[in-house]
From TrEMBL:
Record keywords: ATP-binding, Nucleotide-binding, Transport
UniProt protein name: ABC transporter ATP-binding protein
Record-linked InterPro entries: AAA+_ATPase (IPR003593), ABC_transporter-like_ATP-bd (IPR003439), ABC_transporter-like_CS (IPR017871), ABC_Transporter_VariousFunc (IPR051782), P-loop_NTPase (IPR027417)
Organism: Dyadobacter flavalbus
Keyword Transport: yes
Source organism, top-level taxon: Bacteria
A GO term for molecular function: ATP binding
Domain ABC transporter residues, every copy: 2-231
Length: 235
């Protein structure tokens, strides 16, 4: 579903992403670990068509990503650390607005059911987003992904700052989407979350993917050790 082929990105003379090769299959939850500046967000931003790569290719469902490519944008949804919504509108109004932008025209009942699938409490749906917690905003973000019928989800540190209950709820929703065939690429600093939620885990450092691991084949303590060994190297 997602493929990076020799993907390289430079900002001036700085190599933010160095020859990344990666394949994420339908239903995979791929957690990308790495310290600050490792290149995680750069990878996501290239897949989203926000920034161009200097060389190599990013492919989504066989389509090559280019900046502002509507074909690939329509296939994906993006949930950043803080989901950007209109605070003066209700959750429902936001969902209506964003689904309209994506060219859908759902009934109120259908939109309500997307919100419920995303885990937003019924009593919150018609409240203004300015009163929402971070976790509630993320649920609207997930509802937007559901509305778009996104085949791939890009998550950038989505659980940072969420309490354990909200974080657990979030993981459950991503797992359910994975069961339905949605692929996820998630940048995170949370090793335990990566181990528990991801079926695959990448460890990136200074723009290079050092490890591409199967979650079931590695313990949390081994993963932590490998991660620390990698990030303490100054390449
Ligand atoms: N627009 C930009 N202009 C210049 N340098 C940039 C730009 N965006 C990212 N970089 C640099 O590229 C490198 C990779 O950054 P990136 O944001 O991808 O890292 P990250 O792994 O997501 O880090 P974090 O965990 O802090 O979010 C860093 O050295 C960063 O300073």
């Amino acid at each position: 579903m997602l493929k990076a082929e020799n993907l390289t990105k430079q900002f001036g003379t700085h190599t933010a992403l160095n020859n990344l090769n990666l394949e994420i299959k339908k239903g995979d939850i791929y957690c990308l670990l790495g310290s600050n500046g490792a290149g995680k967000s750069t990878t996501i931003n290239i897949f989203l068509g926000f920034i161009p790569a200097n060389s190599g290719r990013a492919l989504i469902d066989g389509h090559e990503v280019t900046v502002n490519n509507h074909t690939t944008r329509d296939l994906v949804a993006y949930i950043p650390e803080v989901v950007n919504l209109y605070g003066t509108l209700t959750g429902m109004e936001n969902l209506e607005f964003f689904s309209g932008l994506s060219g859908y025209n759902y009934s109120k009942e259908e939109l309500t059911s997307f919100m419920e699938t995303a885990g937003l409490q019924h009593s919150a749906i018609n409240k203004r987003v300015s009163s929402y917690s971070k976790g509630m905003r993320q649920k609207v973000g997930i509802a937007i992904a559901l509305v778009k019928k996104a085949k791939a989800l890009f998550l950038d540190e989505p659980t940072s700052g969420l309490d354990p209950h909200a974080s657990n709820e979030f993981s459950q929703i991503i797992t359910r989407l994975s069961d339905q065939g949605v692929s996820t690429l998630m940048a995170t600093h949370d090793i335990l979350m990566a181990k528990n939620l991801g079926n695959r885990i990448g460890i990136m450092h200074q723009g290079t993917l050092h490890h591409d691991l199967l979650s079931e084949e590695i313990s949390h303590s081994d993963l932590t050790r490998i991660y620390i060994d990698i990030v303490k190297q100054d390449v």
